[in-house]
Design brief:
The chain has ten helices and ten strands. With 260 residues, it is α/β, with parallel strands linked by helices. It folds into two domains: 170 residues, Rossmann fold (3-Layer(aba) Sandwich), CATH 3.40.50.300; 76 residues, no CATH class. The chain binds adenosine-5'-triphosphate. InterPro entries: AAA+_ATPase, ABC_AA/LPS_Transport, ABC_transporter-like_ATP-bd, BCA_ABC_TP_C, P-loop_NTPase.
């Protein structure tokens, strides 16, 4: 079945964010439609990660508003974003290195757990049923990402590309409706990038997950995005479909013309 892009589910209006004297974002507006792959690009320090942090409530903009599923939030807290189905991965891998792949992915289920720690520790009835259900979901994620053979391996022993895949797995375990990916392919070789690209497209296609992606690899961005927003020095300088953005002279001058 062909993937159909839906209505706007996330709207960012006139967002401005400063850290002391540093203006990270100035009057940024753009929206994200259901089921689309929406990329944010721009040179180093353009404000891309700050934008993701505004979306999931880690940073609170001094001006502007965030509307998610029709609900206006001036300040969306991280737990609200997570409980409303927004999951994210980070630029620098944030996994428990000594824990197995399986246990790391299991931590993605935390918000969905209803029984408390003591009930789980004692394997009481409801906790036991719940754990079986969570394990089942985690195994599904492991199969989907084709990492069955490393499910018991401590994450710290895995090559970088696989660690990034596990991080994606942990985000998927939360069954998000929107996934924020902060440079999921940074530092990867060509083959690892191709794999990651395929998984992102499959997540979007098979689960209908809306994806907001920050990525420096222009080939990847232009290939897989439905729409792209371009930031430069905290300002929006382009927004549209890949072809439109590619041919925007301001974008070419500010971004595509510079080497990274
Ligand atoms: N917590 C913070 N405290 C102070 N300044 C910050 C903070 N977070 C971001 N900044 C500043 O805001 C600006 C935008 O940074 P941001 O990390 O959002 O850019 P970016 O486009 O994601 O960059 P990169 O591609 O290098 O990751 C930079 O000048 C950065 O130094």
């Amino acid at each position: 079945m062909a993937r159909e892009i839906g209505d706007v589910i996330l709207n960012l209006e006139n967002i401005s964010l400063s850290f002391g004297g540093v203006k990270a974002l100035t009057d940024i507006s753009f929206d994200v439609r259901e089921h689309e792959i929406r990329s944010i690009i721009g040179p180093n320090g353009a404000g891309k990660s700050s934008m993701l942090n505004v979306i999931n409530g880690v940073y609170h903009p001094q001006e502007g508003q965030v509307t998610f599923h029709g609900e206006v939030r001036r300040e969306m807290e991280p737990y609200m974003a997570a409980s409303q189905g927004i999951a994210r991965t980070f630029q620098n891998i944030a996994l428990f290195k000594g824990m197995s792949v399986l246990d790391n992915i299991m931590t993605g289920r935390n918000l969905k757990m209803k029984c408390n720690f003591l009930q789980h520790a004692l394997h009481w009835g409801a906790a036991r049923c719940e754990e079986i259900e969570h394990r089942h979901k985690v195994e599904e994620v492991i199969d989907f990402l084709e990492i069955q053979s490393i499910r018991k391996t401590p994450v710290g022993r895995l090559p970088y590309g696989l660690q990034k895949r596990v991080e994606l797995g942990r985000a998927l375990a939360a069954e998000p409706s929107m996934l924020l990916l902060d440079e999921p392919m940074a530092g990867m070789n060509v083959e690892e990038k191709q794999d990651m690209c395929r998984f992102i497209l499959d997540v979007n296609d098979q689960f209908g997950t809306t994806i907001v992606l920050i990525e420096h690899d222009m080939g990847v961005v232009m290939d897989i995005s439905d729409r792209v927003v371009v930031l430069d020095y905290g300002k929006k300088i382009g927004d549209g479909e890949p072809d439109e953005v590619k041919n925007n002279p301001e974008v070419i001058a500010a971004y595509l013309g510079t080497s990274h």
